């Protein structure tokens, strides 16, 4: 609220927030956050002790329900290790969730889905800065996954049994340096081409917005060359 000039100080912001019913502050990175001014607001009579108790009560109730204060032995999840989390059943469920979350905007001539039995003897080219770079596949506010559990588009398509060739064209999403000759060489010899483009956290995150929706750097050139 302070940044949007709705209030003029941390103290005023704390008072307005508590009075509005807010009981939790996202203050990561602030040495002295807004709610640190609550004692001053209480002393000045801008908020009441009962109001503070009403705000705090659901927070601790939720933490208690989650078992945050229980001994570790009472936590049913404490015994789970990677043998369970990364079990075939869980990995298959993750794959099913990924498949069902795709949004297909257009499917000319029924090209998709690609089936392993149809790719025998086919030459498949996977190109673009997102084709085989695990680091750029996760957006803002995503956890930091273990690389050994990440499958890039190239890795996934190689599992179909096709003859797969690859070039990034540009090594990172900003795509400032683009190797057109390498891309044309790889794409020119392919029967099927999969182009993997996008932005990622290197290009845009919270507080780092973009002026337009254009592909960054030379990514559009890469796409047009692949189509040509």
From TrEMBL:
Quote any Pfam family the record assigns: Glyco_hydro_3_C
Q: What keywords are assigned to this protein? A: Glycosidase, Hydrolase
| Glycoside hydrolase family 3 C-terminal domain boundaries | 103-226
Q: Name one GO molecular function term.
A: xylan 1,4-beta-xylosidase activity
Which SUPFAM superfamilies does the entry link to?
A: (Trans)glycosidases, Beta-D-glucan exohydrolase, C-terminal domain
Which example biological process does GO assign this protein? xylan catabolic process
**How is this protein named in the record?**
XYL2 arabinofuranosidase
């Amino acid at each position: 609220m302070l940044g949007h000039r709705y209030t003029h100080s941390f103290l005023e912001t704390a008072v307005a927030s508590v009075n509005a019913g807010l009981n939790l502050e996202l203050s990561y990175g602030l040495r002295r956050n807004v709610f640190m001014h609550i004692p001053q607001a209480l002393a000045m009579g801008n908020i009441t002790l009962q109001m503070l108790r009403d705000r705090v009560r659901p927070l601790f109730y939720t933490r208690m329900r989650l078992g945050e204060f229980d001994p570790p032995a009472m936590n049913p999840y404490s015994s789970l290790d990677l043998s369970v989390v990364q079990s075939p059943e869980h990995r298959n469920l993750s794959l099913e969730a990924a498949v069902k979350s795709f949004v297909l905007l257009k499917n000319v001539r029924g090209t998709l889905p690609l089936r392993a039995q149809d790719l025998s003897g086919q030459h498949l080219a996977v190109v673009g800065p997102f084709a085989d770079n695990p680091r750029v596949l996760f957006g803002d506010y995503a956890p930091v996954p273990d690389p050994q559990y990440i499958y890039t588009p190239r890795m996934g398509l190689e599992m179909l049994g096709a003859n797969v060739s690859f070039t990034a064209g540009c090594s990172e999403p900003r795509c400032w340096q683009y190797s057109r000759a390498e891309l044309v060489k790889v794409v020119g010899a392919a029967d099927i081409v999969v182009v993997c483009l996008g932005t990622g956290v290197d290009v845009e995150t919270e507080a780092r917005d973009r002026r337009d929706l254009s592909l960054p750097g030379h990514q559009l050139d890469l796409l047009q060359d692949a189509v040509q």
